[in-house]
Write a structure and sequence with these properties.
- The protein has 132 residues and is mainly α.
- The chain has one domain.
- 74% of the residues lie in helices and 0% in strands.
- The protein contains 5 helices and no strands.
- Helix 1 crosses helix 2, helix 1 packs across helix 3 and helix 2 runs antiparallel to helix 3.
């Protein structure tokens, strides 16, 4: 199934979103605060996890849906640790940027990625099997 088209699928989708947001943010904070890694170390751990998933995408045949959800979940603690690193006080290991400036830095990074990283349209899996 490639669409959120049934109540059961929609319930799964929203449960995954809610749990990944809540637990992902808590995990990012826990790793940075009590894991001894601080914000930079936490960001490196979750960034490395995403890099491993990217490599797994290219070099294995693990289901793409599984890899998508794993990456989706890992972006939550990564975002929490980077956000905390940008706006927490210096004595707590952050850069002490204001929330507005931290948001602007993140927005600039996202916009730069959109323009600098090549984007190409893909084919839907159903289109590929029908054209063969």
């Amino acid at each position: 199934m490639n669409a959120v088209s049934t109540p059961k699928t929609e319930a799964f989708y929203w449960a995954a979103i809610t749990f990944s947001q809540t637990l992902g943010t808590a995990l990012g904070d826990w790793i940075a605060d009590t894991g001894g890694l601080r914000y930079e170390g936490g960001a490196l751990v979750f960034g490395a996890g995403l890099a491993i998933l990217a490599a797994t995408y290219y070099w294995t045949s693990i289901a793409r849906v599984t890899l998508f959800w794993a990456a989706f979940i890992l972006t939550r603690p990564l975002g929490a640790t980077i956000g905390d690193f940008l706006d927490k006080p210096i004595n707590q290991g952050g850069l002490h940027l204001s929330r507005a400036l931290a948001s602007a830095v993140l927005a600039a990074f996202i916009v730069a990625c959109v323009f600098l990283l090549p984007q190409r349209a893909g084919k839907h899996p159903n289109e590929i099997t029908q054209s063969v």
